[in-house]
Write a structure and sequence with these properties.
Chain lengths: 257, 341
């Protein structure tokens, strides 16, 4: 479980996050929502251990983040950046191997790698250069890399959380759904997932809890049905938003145009 | 473009090792002294004349060993800096180490008369190498300290400080050249263009130990350098202590390059070209780039040295000119035929 008490962070004298509480349990999917500049990505980078200033406010299980070395942290959480990049001419296979801990045996690595390749529709493409793939494919390739790190951690006996910064932003609607179903599957296997999402409909459909941020403060935390109400969303986003329940029982959240 | 298989990587090792073996043989056999193969074979068996023994074991052999070690460690240093800075233009010369080392020696040559009389005779051959090493070290300390100002280690500042120091050092070397006598000018050429001609076992062994140890330690960062290709944030997410690793790699490069310059002068181009050739012809993963670049660098330097020793005997062209003349057009050709860098 990841817990945070009054997470606050100022960058260059400007407060970015103030007193944000945080809780993510194993097997749970938590969406981080809010308008641009609300502090979603900053909160995620705090939880990932990138800011020592707030490292004492965050605990992985019973250990303060400040007491964890980069290597320990890599066992406790895996992170997918919003815009992952690759500076070298690596093949898909070389990219996906990157995250795997050294402790993993070559056989286990090969197995995890071929599983991930198959899962993302990359079978028989492992020798393609990453730079030759489309933008969406590259993003999914980085997701596969992070997934191999996550599964390797679990195979080595470390409980590991998955932190995703807008993983659906460069994907078409079909791949968005596939990815979120995969996230649900991971949660069913006991992984705690934090996902920054702009698409409130996806957040409503696929997550257990939503943390809504505005101007660096937590507005509301709870189940999607409670947090994603028309009034709260209209206030936070500054535009009128309606929430309906479709005949399928699914929430439909849309702005009044 | 098709990706090269593991078998291709293995074949690259074999070809480069075979070439290196050939270069070593040629370095020992060919030279301005004109020894015949039978004289050389006699020396190897321990029945040669004193003159041919000296030429082979005390002139050609240390020079050959120095060529291999300097070439390999320049290539590994270049590959590490390119990987660390995620900048294909990075080169040991880029962060000012080479310039600092050269400047220190140029100072000693032109202005050293003041104190050179007080140096004991047995220390005289070591004065220039020591000056080069200290000059390289001083620049490294300045560059690393400046890059660390403000708590975090900034690669951008590291490169800019290196560029500034190189500019200042070049200007001061220019002033020294203007002030120097004809005799001094001849010696200055060595320290501005590089050469393997000053090799003897004493200086070569000390410098080689430093270069080999630093290079072997750099090889341990292969996995980390691969992760750094994802960017510093993602490398941290995968467990890399980025600030510490950056500092360690820069410090090891400084040792390797400083020791190299101290015995062979500043030799350009190898640290830039060898890693690129490896990436274009073999693979981009640092598990392959580092060791293969080392072999490529050793080959480049030995063949370049063969060329400068034998092109217009008994005169010698500075080896920096040869590496640029041999490497430059080849590098351009590589770039033109392959747009993927």
């Amino acid at each position: 479980m990841i817990t945070g008490t009054n997470i606050s962070l100022s960058l260059g004298g400007k407060p970015i996050l103030s007193d944000v509480p945080f809780l993510l349990e194993a097997g749970q999917v938590l969406a981080l929502c809010g308008p641009n500049g609300a502090g979603k990505s900053t909160l995620l980078s705090c939880l990932a251990g990138e800011h020592s200033a707030c490292a004492e406010a965050i605990c992985y299980f019973d250990t303060q983040l400040s007491a964890l070395s980069p290597r320990d942290l890599a066992r406790h959480r895996v992170v997918l950046e919003q815009n992952p990049s690759l500076a070298a001419a690596f093949t898909l296979s070389e990219l996906i191997e990157l995250g795997a801990p050294m402790a993993l045996s070559p056989d286990e690595l090969a197995q995890l790698k071929s599983e991930a390749l198959a899962e993302f529709g990359f079978t028989s493409m492992e020798d393609r250069y990453v730079s030759e793939l489309s933008g969406g494919q590259q993003h999914r390739a980085h997701f596969a890399r992070v997934l191999v790190q996550l599964r390797a951690n679990r195979r080595l006996g470390h409980e590991s959380f998955l932190l995703l910064d807008e993983p659906t932003s460069s994907l078409d609607i079909g791949h968005q759904i596939t990815l979120l179903r995969l996230i649900r599957q991971l949660a069913a296997d006991g992984v705690g997932v934090l996902v920054v999402l702009h698409d409130l409909n996806l957040a409503a459909a696929f997550t257990d809890h939503v943390l809504l941020l505005q101007d660096g403060k937590a507005v509301q935390y709870g189940e999607p049905g409670e947090v994603l109400s028309a009034k709260t969303l209209s206030d936070v986003y500054g535009t009128e938003i309606i929430v309906e329940t479709a005949s399928t029982g699914q929430f439909v959240i849309q702005p009044v145009l | 473009m098709a990706v090269r298989s593991t078998r291709f990587v293995g074949a690259s090792y074999l070809v480069l090792l075979a070439l290196l073996f050939l270069a070593v043989l040629l370095a020992l056999v060919i030279g301005p002294a004109g020894l015949s193969p039978s004289e050389i074979w006699a020396s190897v068996r321990g029945t040669g004349t004193a003159a041919s023994d000296t030429i082979i074991f005390n002139i050609r052999a240390p020079r050959m060993v120095l060529g291999i070690v300097v070439g390999a460690s320049l290539a590994i240093s270049g590959a590490c800096l390119q990987g660390l800075l995620r900048n294909p233009l990075a080169d040991p010369g880029l962060i000012g180490i080479t310039a600092g080392a050269s400047l220190a020696v140029v100072f000693v040559i032109v202005l050293g008369d003041v104190f050179i009389g007080t140096v004991p005779a047995y220390m005289l051959p070591a004065v220039h190498p020591i000056a080069a090493f200290l000059g390289g070290l001083a620049v490294t300390v300045i560059v690393l300290a400046t890059a660390r100002i403000g708590g975090s280690f900034s690669v951008g500042r590291l490169i800019l400080v290196g560029v500034a120091i190189t500019a200042i050092a070049s200007a001061m070397i220019g002033i020294m050249i203007y002030m120097s006598t004809d005799q001094q000018l001849r010696e200055l050429t060595f320290w501005t263009m590089g050469s393997l001609a000053k090799s003897n076992w004493n200086t070569v062994l000390i410098a080689c130990v430093a270069m080999v140890v630093a290079s072997l330690m750099l090889l341990r960062y292969r996995g980390v350098l691969d992760l750094l290709q994802l960017g510093e944030r993602a490398a941290f997410h995968a467990g890399v202590d980025v600030a510490r690793v950056k500092f360690q790699i820069c410090a090891l490069v400084a040792v390797a390059v400083g020791a190299g310059v101290s015995v062979a002068g500043p030799i350009g181009f190898v640290g830039l070209v060898a890693p690129h050739m490896t990436r274009l012809f073999v693979r981009a993963s640092h598990w392959v780039v580092l060791p293969i670049s080392a072999l490529v660098g050793a080959n480049i330097l030995l063949f370049a040295d063969l060329f400068v020793r034998n092109a217009i005997p008994p005169a010698e062209i500075p080896i920096g000119i040869a590496t640029a003349i041999l490497g430059g057009p080849f590098f351009l050709w590589l770039l033109l035929r392959n747009s993927r860098l």
